TrEMBL record:
It comes from the Bacteria. InterPro entries: Homeodomain-like_sf, HTH_RpiR, RpiR-like, RpiR-like_SIS, SIS_dom, SIS_dom_sf, WH-like_DNA-bd_sf. It comes from Luteibacter rhizovicinus. The lineage of its organism: Bacteria, Pseudomonadati, Pseudomonadota, Gammaproteobacteria, Lysobacterales. Keywords: DNA-binding, Transcription, Transcription regulation. This is RpiR family transcriptional regulator. PROSITE patterns: HTH_RPIR, SIS. CDD domains: SIS_RpiR. Residues 1-77 form the HTH rpiR-type domain. Residues 122-265 form the SIS domain.
Amino acid sequence: MSPLVKIRSERDSMSAVERRIADFILENALLLRDYSSQQLANALGISQSSVVKFTQKLGFRGYPDLKYSVGEAIARDNGDADNVATAADASDDPPGTVLWRRKNEAEEATRLINSRETVERTVQAIDAAGRSGKVFIIGLGEDDIYARGFALKLSLLGILAIYQFDAARMAANISTAQPGDVLLAFSEHGKHPGLCKIARFFHERRGQVITVTRHTSNPLRALADIALVVSAHDDLPYIQSLVYQSSLQHLLDTVFVSLCESDDTRHAQLVANLDRIQQTLDS
């Protein structure tokens, strides 16, 4: 994994000081070769040991190793250093260009931090629950849009999806959960106490909990059997929300496509349902 992608993907789970270091490196990747660890520390007004700990936490032997790795990554990008150097300078690019760049960066980071094993476990859990049980899906606020959309996709595959946007109603629905059923809980920040209670109730029913949150340490993610995470950040709130939504949708589409391709019967069910829907709309 490129060190810049790694830094970007881990940023949401970093401390405030670590985020300052990360942002400096991401915004000044081309200039990093001219900075010693002490000079970087001085530029940020922090201790040199903070810089060293930051690099080691990312898995590098030390700051020189990180600096060399960043230089190699830039060289591999066919000398496209201008894009790296100006990545954070929105004033030099049309807004659409900056947004596309941020989306591409976030989607790549999200793809890398959700390992193939994690995605496969998610697909297997949903597939198994769809064959002999139920998939419960909930999202509150803006997360409801993605929870509802994913519930519809599962229903097209012939998977029984019980969708709710109300925590109290979902708590009641969970009384019908059986061992092997799956709960998909969508929460960007993973801090809603109601969702955490629902996850605990679901564990009592011996079901599997799959959470979809930001790539941060949060109470809901801590309760997950399988945690899908989204990496997305930007200094501008309106950009950050769009980047998060784009990366989340890309992650969900990856799971959906994997479900389609893992079983010919499910794919046939999808085609049949789409045809039935079209006939209904044409009538």
